[in-house]
């Protein structure tokens, strides 16, 4: 039996059986990989005083400080209450400060503290180590193709109107 036969068998099984096995579910496989990434990241960044949920926020702020809570919600793809809790924890941990925007005093922007900036190098090194571990059995071409395909999948899901989230605007 060759790969084409396997694909055809899977297509026939999908059409006939309502049962979905975990290993056949792309969503399950991606979710499992994400949970394993999060667990590995937690083990490496917790000694730095970080929680895994803070890492995407830090990535956005290391790229460009002075973002609003609403901007961070859109970038990180989380709801306002989740972001509010994450930012409160980061503020208590001395990673960020909320400041009035110098151009529009009605807006509050999020800025990194010195501690938040100093964690960039060790936290990024931890994430790169995990990425390398996850990709070690793939060729560079396969790694590139995986990133490309995951980007397409994310775009497909984010553009579909049934998947839209209700996010309030926060100035």
Automatic annotation (TrEMBL):
<dbReference type="InterPro" id="IPR036388">
    <property type="entry name" value="WH-like_DNA-bd_sf"/>
</dbReference>
<dbReference type="GO" id="GO:0003700">
    <property type="term" value="F:DNA-binding transcription factor activity"/>
</dbReference>
<dbReference type="Pfam" id="PF12802">
    <property type="entry name" value="MarR_2"/>
</dbReference>
<dbReference type="GO" id="GO:0003677">
    <property type="term" value="F:DNA binding"/>
</dbReference>
<keyword id="KW-0238">DNA-binding</keyword>
<feature type="domain" description="HTH marR-type">
    <location>
        <begin position="23"/>
        <end position="155"/>
    </location>
</feature>
<keyword id="KW-0804">Transcription</keyword>
<dbReference type="InterPro" id="IPR000835">
    <property type="entry name" value="HTH_MarR-typ"/>
</dbReference>
<protein>
    <submittedName>
        <fullName>Transcriptional regulator, MarR family</fullName>
    </submittedName>
</protein>
<keyword id="KW-0805">Transcription regulation</keyword>
<dbReference type="InterPro" id="IPR023187">
    <property type="entry name" value="Tscrpt_reg_MarR-type_CS"/>
</dbReference>
<dbReference type="InterPro" id="IPR036390">
    <property type="entry name" value="WH_DNA-bd_sf"/>
</dbReference>
């Amino acid at each position: 039996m060759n790969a084409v036969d396997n694909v055809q068998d899977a297509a026939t099984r999908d059409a006939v059986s309502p049962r979905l096995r975990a290993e056949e579910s792309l969503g399950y496989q991606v979710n499992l990989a994400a949970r394993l990434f999060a667990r590995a990241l937690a083990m490496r960044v917790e000694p730095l005083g970080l929680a895994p949920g803070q890492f995407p926020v830090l990535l956005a702020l290391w790229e460009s400080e002075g973002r609003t809570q609403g901007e961070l919600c859109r970038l990180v793809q989380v709801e306002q209450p989740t972001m509010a809790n994450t930012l409160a924890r980061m503020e208590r941990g001395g990673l960020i400060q909320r400041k009035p925007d110098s151009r529009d005093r009605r807006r509050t922007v999020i800025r990194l503290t010195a501690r938040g900036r100093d964690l960039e190098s060790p936290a990024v090194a931890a994430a790169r180590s995990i990425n390398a571990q996850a990709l070690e059995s793939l060729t560079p071409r396969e790694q590139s193709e995986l990133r490309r395909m995951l980007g397409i999948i994310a775009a497909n899901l984010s553009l579909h109107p049934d998947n839209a989230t209700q996010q309030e605007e926060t100035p």
